[in-house]
Structures
1.
Amino acid sequence: MMTVATQASSATVLATIGFITSGMMSIAAAIPLVAGATVGTSSTTWLVATLGLSTGIAAVLMPLLALGAVLRTLGRGRWRHIGTAIAGITVLLLAITFIRDNVAPVASSIDLAGHDGGTVTGRLALVAIGMLLGCAMQSSAAPIALVMVALHSGTLGWNEAASVTIGATIGTTSTGVLATLGTRASARRIAAAWAICAVVQAAIALLLFTPLRHAADAIGTTIAGETGAEPNAIGLAAFHTGFTALGALPILIGAVPLARRLARWIPDRSDVPPIVEFDRSALEVPGVAAATARRGLTESGMAVTNMALVVLSGSGLGSIGDRITSATASLDATRRFVGEIQVPEGDDDTVELQRGTVGALDHLTRLVGDVQNLLPAARNMNAFPPVVREYLNDARTAVEVFDGWLRNPESPPPLAELKRISASLGARRKQERSDTLNRTAAGGTTPDTAINELDALRYADRMVHHAAKAASYLTVRVNGAARTAPVDSASADISEEPS
């Protein structure tokens, strides 16, 4: 149904890849979506066979396009979305009529006389041509529309058109393969599943070519008799739906074992450093891209908390440089990806999700800066009095709470606990600062040690504050009408931030 609505199996599969890389779906759950997309793309063939080959359809579509444009421009709320849908559907149907009118001259010049669709070798050659067309056009709909117009004009036989259709179904999977090159293993697995599904469908179409043609001819004759449509075109559309549906069945039945095999065939790379990676294919769908960015920010947050815990404990500082580099690189990758998301006008849900992501990104970035500022003092932590070490330990507890929630985001957000610890540390810091200054003035500690203690208090206080605020922004969830807004307002970020 997603593919029927978008008229593009590639868009559905790329969105599915985004679901996987954002952590919203498993490979085993995504494989049936991909199989469904390959069946749904045959809806374009039906549109071409019915409306696309009809004359005079443009006279009906133009007023609908005008209506959709008016609603899209002047409407509000639901009417605005309805106008967008009407305009989009009419533009799609108009495009099909343009294909019919403009492809006809090209179709009439197609010479496939050297490839007889009635023989095995000729059929395989035509399948290969369809594959090349699908790869070149990055679509199965375009080459299928081309051969259907050629079939309608009589320049191409039914067997030849059907063979090219089979090949185009395989060729369009190159979109997923190209989009996932160099990306995570999970994305490459689903692209491979798409290609496997297409190959299985093509194999079934070739093995059952004759019975499928007889069934398609019967359907075409029946529907044409009732509607006056072109029987050969209807038959080709029925053939396309038939072999894709039959080929999808074994993929649906074997989705789980196929997912396991793909995990073995395309393993995760063990040599990749722990820096967050993003699959750019998710940018095709803004909502999916926003969810992918949120997932990446959560992973970046874990790198930040890991680094913060090392500094607050004062141990394991030998690897702190690598940890800071990893955390900073992850945040930078997230920031770049967020900046590339193009949110369409009126998509309030995605805007709200992005707002929470950007707010959390800001606080996590500031947390990294506080860690770097705390590092010199942390190297001399053993010289601190017990009360300061206890303060740092309590700050470490707060960061551990935040880290635990990042690793299990489905658990209840620990906002109240983080806010309580942050408020407690803020109040204690004022007292500890006074005690440190008095102790230094009385000669109980050196000024250098006092400065280190004050830095430790200051930056530990700020780290917990930013962890609490980042958690607040990361609780933002969008699911249709159900939204979870940040607990604290954005204006409070500045007024409450420890100096």
2.
Amino acid sequence: MMRLVVLLCTIAVFLSLIALLGGIGRRMDLMQHRFTQLQETERFYSDDELKKSFSERVFRPAVSQLTNLVKRSAGKRKTPGSSKANQKLEAQIKASGLPVTLQEFTFIKSMLGLLFLIGGVFFFLFSKIDMTYRLLILIVLVCSPIYGSSIFLRSRVKARKQSIAYDLPDVMDVLVVSLEAGLGLDSAIIRQYSKNKNTVLTELNNAIKEIQMGVPRRTALKEMADRCDVKELTVFVTALLQADQLGTSVKSVLQVQSERLRVERKQAIQAKASKAPIKIMLPTVIFIFPVIFIILLGPAAVDIMSTFG
């Protein structure tokens, strides 16, 4: 009997030790597993960081910090007056889609002018070329930021307007398909913007955000049309507001406007094609006809010169 009690006690102690050691082992395995996950996560993040290009790791953060510094510095300056020139410049900035205000754009333009002036003065003082060339280079460097910023802004506005006019029919077709699928106009615009962030959908999405923030629909859409200053978009917004006011189908309005824009685009292409022969005539006369005359009349001219020589 005593032997049986000792055996049972031994077995109980053995099972208790196994249970205790098993619990400790499971906790250690769990801690090791978590530690391994942390190491893999750290290695994964570091690998992702190293896979990025130099511009994403260094250049873009530096540009972002410089942009924030410029905005803070521009905010300390006085706001430009509300003259006609400033109003026109502000309208151009809005139409170009640049993420700067009139005050920031004026500040950047002034800083560029100052930097170019300093560089031109250093070049003028320490360069060893002729005085006339140094003075000419100084004038060019001083005038470059003034006229270059205006040229850049006008080209940006022109390119953006062309992009809006080109993308608008395709955007309307996609919105028609979304409306036929059962979405509302606002939901269709937001959904399409999440997939394709072109200029038209960006402007429409910004207008929808303003509407969601409490701005009246008519006001938001009219401000968008005035900001972009594109005839096709203005006509589209007008038709959309009339359809909303009269209660007509938005889908039919989009279809009609899309067909009209495609017809106008086709007519514009045909008009440009009809002007092509006239535009080709000038380089033909300047560059091709002289070469033909040299080839045809050159040998005869040489013979005549040799005969009378």
